[in-house]
Amino acid sequence: MLALVLWIHLGDLLTAWVYYGGAVPEVAYARLFRDMSVLLAACACLATTRMATSILLSLLIYGALVLLSLGTSATAATSPGIVLGSFGTLLIPLLFFLVGYYCIRDYADLRALVGCIVIIACLSAIFGVWDIDHTDFWIQTVRFPAYMTDVKGMVFGAEPDTGLPWNFFSDLEKTRRAAGLLAAPLAQGMFLAVAGLLVLATSRGGLRLLGVLICVGLCVGVWMTATRGAMLVGTIAVAGYLMTDGTLRVHKSIRIALAILAVLVIIVATQDILEATAYQTDGSSPGHWAAFWRNIEGLPQIPLLGYGVGMQGPIAAQGVILTIGGGEGAIFSVAYQIGIPAAVALLSFYMICLIRLWRAHRDYRSSFALATFWLMVGFATTLVTSDHLLAVSGSASLWLLTGGGLRLLSRAQGKEHHLLEAHA
């Protein structure tokens, strides 16, 4: 599990460094080996692990609809590579949830996962402070543009002068964003937001002040990525957690005041970004709004099983075949490719996870369940704005935590039930 977490979040940087512009082309197969490992672990989970009926049913319905739509897409004009790549992205929530459910078998495993995520996040945030002023590192030392083009198949989205993806820059003046060890500013922002709340939730006693300081540092790291989605996720998650965490031995009104203060600090720190978004004076906001409304307008015309796997989403965009919808938003990507019933199945799974996490917090006062609950609430805002929930580096940590956490919490409920029966 820990090797997979390291691979997910450090893999692009290390692979690009070894690939070195094509010097070692065989390293490109490392991504395939990682994907096969995830697939095998997910299959092992389905074959050997008991799961709550509501979760299992929603996962199976969603997976079946993806496979059914894949079968109808086989005869389409879309190239097999785009179909296969899009198929993989659609299964990311299901696969990584199952991997977390299978690999995390006790609280020691969960603590190790949380510790690994926090350590990687801290190192990545520190590295981001350095890399934001050293663009030459990505161009000359790592030769990242060649890796993105040759291995990851980037056709569009490169900045002409450097060859780096445009998301390495926050505006047309080429103001750098921190990419960190994840080698992706958007994924870096989301990952640091996840780690920030985890360290806040798991710090106890004399370590709580240190946890708060680390959380603040990671929030600064999120700000350095200039990722609005991650800022929104972090704001919702931190504020919601502070308001509802009963382990904070202060009056509820003080917890609410702390949450409001945290929100105000974040708003002040991101004032320029918020103004640019509100007045659509930056380079991306008008396009995001236009894509959102195109997605909404096209929903009534979607066929029952969608237009086919590979007909929308980030993989399709690189293949120059994006002709339907607006092309942004994970839930829209699911609906346009495999149909509205599949989108409903995915949302149902998401809601079931939220409900079970909240009940676990209510029944067992689990800070981890509460933190994961608020992270999922925060990530829900990206369902209509981006494809983070269908990206490995952007959401794998969340799905691993959710899957593993729900398995441990279901075990706790089972033990309680057996104790009640024995007492009766």
Shape: globular
Percent helix range: over 70%
Order of helices and strands: HHHHHHHHHHHHHHHHHHH
| Largest sheet descriptor | none
Q: Measured on Cα atoms, how large is the radius of gyration?
A: 21 Å
Mean pLDDT: 84
| Beta-strand fraction estimate | under 5%
The N- to C-terminal Cα distance equals: 40 Å
Describe what this molecule looks like in 3D.
- Residues 416-424 have low confidence and may be disordered.
- The chain is built from 19 helices and no strands.
- It has helices at residues 2-19, 30-48, 53-73, 80-90, 92-103, 107-131, 135-141, 144-150, 185-202, 208-225, 228-244, 252-269, 271-278, 285-298, 314-318, 330-338, 340-364, 367-380, 392-423.
- Helix 9 (185-202) runs parallel beside helix 11 and helix 11 (228-244) runs antiparallel to helix 18 (367-380).
Blueprint of the fold:
Elements: H1 2-19, H2 30-48, H3 53-73, H4 80-90, H5 92-103, H6 107-131, H7 135-141, H8 144-150, H9 185-202, H10 208-225, H11 228-244, H12 252-269, H13 271-278, H14 285-298, H15 314-318, H16 330-338, H17 340-364, H18 367-380, H19 392-423
Short summary of the structure?
This protein is mostly helical and 424 residues long. The protein has helices at residues 2-19, 30-48, 53-73, 80-90, 92-103, 107-131, 135-141, 144-150, 185-202, 208-225, 228-244, 252-269, 271-278, 285-298, 314-318, 330-338, 340-364, 367-380, 392-423.
Observed structural traits:
424 residues, 19 helices, disordered C terminus
